[in-house]
Amino acid sequence: MSELRDAAMSSKAWPFEEARRVLKRYEKTPPEKGYVLFETGYGPSGLPHIGTFGEVLRTTMIRNAFGMISDIPTRMICFSDDLDGMRKVPGNVPNQDMLQEHLQKPLTSVPDPFGTHDSFGDHNNAMLRRFLDTFGFEYEFYSATEFYKSGRFDEVLLRAAERYDDVMKVMLKSLREERRQTYSIFLPLHPETGRVLYVPIKHVDAAKGEITFDDEDGREWTLPVTGGNVKLQWKPDFGARWAALGVDFEMYGKDHSTNTPIYDRICEILGQKAPEHFTYELFLDDSGQKISKSSGNGISIDEWLTYASTESLSYFMYLKPKTAKRLYFDVIPKAVDEYHQQLRAYATQDAAQKLANPVHHIHNGNVPESRMVVSFAMLLNLASVASAHDKDTLWGFIRRYAPDASPETHPDLDQAAGFAVKYYKDFVAPHRQCRAPTDLEREALQDLRDQLASYDGPVEDEALQSVVYAVGRDRFEPLRDWFKAIYEVLLGASQGPRFGGFIALYGVKETVALIDRALAGELA
To answer: Global pTM?
Structure first.
């Protein structure tokens, strides 16, 4: 363990770099609260999306890394801003007209359009927790509604009233002139309608902890800032929540980065040291647009898990968090195969290499063995040429290729075979289109067909790859044009895994028959 801890203290893997920053906060004295607090935030204005999962996963990785370099206990909170007013109706939920009647009400006061929970906020919170529980995250769930109404936020809210001018000064610097005229850090909840009001505050009584304002009809009201009668605007709420909970670390997307100095300064005004932050790049959909929980573009967690394992999604989330990445269905096969490549590499790596390997962070050091003797990309190609409708079809080929493999001994391969069939049906089959070979390609394919028909060597990846290579070597420059032709003519794809491995898996005789069909014009 000491070897791993030493390696962790110098590892350049981003979870360890962030964990060391958090540890530096307490290099002189341990935290008074007795633990280090990691937080993630969730705005439940729409259904939870995959970016929310990524935020919790990455924070968990940093928390686990912290546990390797420090004995200080840790906690992780997932905080839902469910007291926010519903400012627009999400486009991907039912009962749109009903929701329209509840605009500006806190999400936990809006009826659930799905009819399964007490409120829309409760529904979305439950969805979030189900998603997080699917992945086995260790976290504590906090609701802003409960946090405000229970009095747990009262001390900091009273302090915000006492230091109102100081907090306002921070906020006003960041606002346009017209916004400054009406802005207040406090948003009252109307005593009659329950709506979140964006109205000027006429007076703040710090001694009594009260605010006075006129509602939209010109009626004057005075409310205490405590007990859930008032909420903070979202930027002050960030800093105030950090101060109330004693948050040590929170990550958020790049779209928040310009607000970081505001959050930090408000936290400090309200009596606490600002936490460490990590700003990650946003995810993009297939057209390069930022994914959004309200519009529902990009991939959902459930959609990813229809075609690949949870671990492959975690692998995708680990990679280059400070780089914007397309998050669409076509990234799934690559993520699956790279994840298993890293699993296979882990067993032979030294301590430093292990800690830099994504699978260490995905599995918190308890890294399993990969039993994927056939790649996901190869399974997809096999499903394509076999027109597979179930994974049993693929297992007929897999057993011949790897006689020791079975669904029982290779559960990850069995799971991947099922996923490959689903992926093939939904994304490959509708667009698969083989083309006719050129004259040069026809000559080469005929040669390959004849050599395979008379082949009596070992049915192994490398031996068969040598045959494929030899056929193309003297005909194609560059040689990759030969392999591109093979896949476009025989499989309807422009790229794929090593074709020698495909022949070994699909079968030599079966490949000969496939080439015959292509040369006869039956595939194009």
So the answer is: 0.92
